[in-house]
Amino acid sequence: MTRLRRIADTTFRSLHTRNYRLYFTGQIISVSGTWMQSVALAWLVVHYLAPRSQRGVDIGITLALQFLPMLLFGAWGGLIADRVDKRRLLVTTQVSAGCLALVLGLLVLIGPGPAGSAHLWEVYLLSLGLGVVNMFDNPARQTFVIEMVGKNDLSNAVSLNSIVMNGARVIGPAIGGVLIATVGLGVCFLANSASYVAVIVALMLMHRSDLHPAQRVARAKGQLREGVRYAWRTPNLRDPLILVFVVGLLAYNFTVILPLLAQETFHGGAGTFALLTSLMAGGAVVGGLIVANRGKPNIHRLTAVGIAFSVMIGAVALSPTLAAACVVLVFMGGLSIAFIATANSTIQLQVEPTMRGRVMALYAMGFLGTTPIGAPLVGWICQTSSPRVALLVGAVATLAASTLTRLRHRNEHRRLDAMSSVIDEAEPGTELGVA
Fold this sequence. Notes:
- Helix content is 81%, strand content 0%.
- The protein is an all-alpha fold and 435 residues long.
- The protein has 2 domains: 1-207, Growth Hormone, Chain: A (Up-down Bundle), CATH 1.20.1250.20; 226-422, Up-down Bundle (Growth Hormone, Chain: A), CATH 1.20.1250.20.
């Protein structure tokens, strides 16, 4: 019992911090509401607003609009996070997102029929509005974690956040499905709007004296370029960021691949898709718990996880039966979260505090902002070949990027070790390179 308690204390050590405990609780409620809305939004577009021949295109546009601002202007959102109080910025983004969900809920509830008075262009506009909110919210939320828990518990807190995201991926859609079947679509959007209150209350109840705020960046010209140059000139930031861009673009498009894998590859229906999604999410929760129990991450561990992740993606692609795919998906889900949590923590621990918002915005652009490009590309691969081929493309890309990053850093360490040996052997006071 003592050993189990010690493991639990290590795994959930970030929750010992009051401010993070409040935030964690609010996130559980809010993220569940977000996933609930995602299901309801897809149902609204596919079944009530989009013509039958345009369903795939219209739901793709709806998804892309939620990430397009991040792709185009994400670095600017990160700069704002560096300049202002992140807690206040998060309150603003949560209120804004809640209002957008409220408007959508009222549109669906007011008017005849299951879609109410909602039109497709209104859904597009509200999705774009949510994308603008996320452009500011994501870098602020990513960088606020270290201000709540400090450097020592950052990796643990990031992993626990991943657990929340994937646990909510199971809970939210399940609740959403029940609400759609019993009381209608509109209630899902209203419930999501109300769920933001939990995060707002948590942020307002925090003890500001217990936070570890980074120094705010004064307004000046050229700060966006400065952030990009800083990330590019720092190998310990540039290499994991490039790796995240590759994985986000070609491998992390499971919302596109899994339904097609269920339907076209394994000839199943909604139940098969739900099974695959739940197994991956369950594996992700376990993976998050394992990562939360580990020490500080580094690029060596990140590339090792990336290689293992690529192997599991390939194994799913080559699974001969649905049963085999289900087993492998659990491991793939665990490694997917291990990769993202390790990348997030590795970058945050390497970056200068005054640059953290801009660099984490680049991270968000790689992981989320590539969706408007990666999702249609992967969908095209699925359509022209098969979901198996799309998975293999992601597996090969992840394997190549992880291996090259690993080799590059190994060579860099050898070069630094060689330079250290030369310096150690030099006589005191001798200037190297001078005859």
